[in-house]
Amino acid sequence: MAKAAREALKRLTEPELRRIVREELDYFRREFDARMDGLEAKVDAANQRIDTAEKSVNQRIDVTNQRIDSLERSVNQRLDDLRQQVVFLQQLVMQALDIRPKPQAASPARPESES
Prior knowledge:
This protein is mainly alpha-helical. It contains two helices and no strands.
């Protein structure tokens, strides 16, 4: 059978061979184009899924950042309130014990012990 095919090819003229090769190349090009179109469609679908996922993640990050900012403001406000309460309580304790703050003068020199 292979021998018969070789004999048939030998009998073909150059224009016939060119036509056959051109037809085969066109067939393979169409097959290749169809496969590439399929792959491009898959890539486009994957890109859309990635874009959707990225938007979702970015939205979650934004919401989380807003919550963090809100919590940070709340904690800072609470710390400020607590600082004010501490100062107020210190003043109350000082008044209750009649403690006066010591002036920050130079410390008196200690007498040296005689040996």
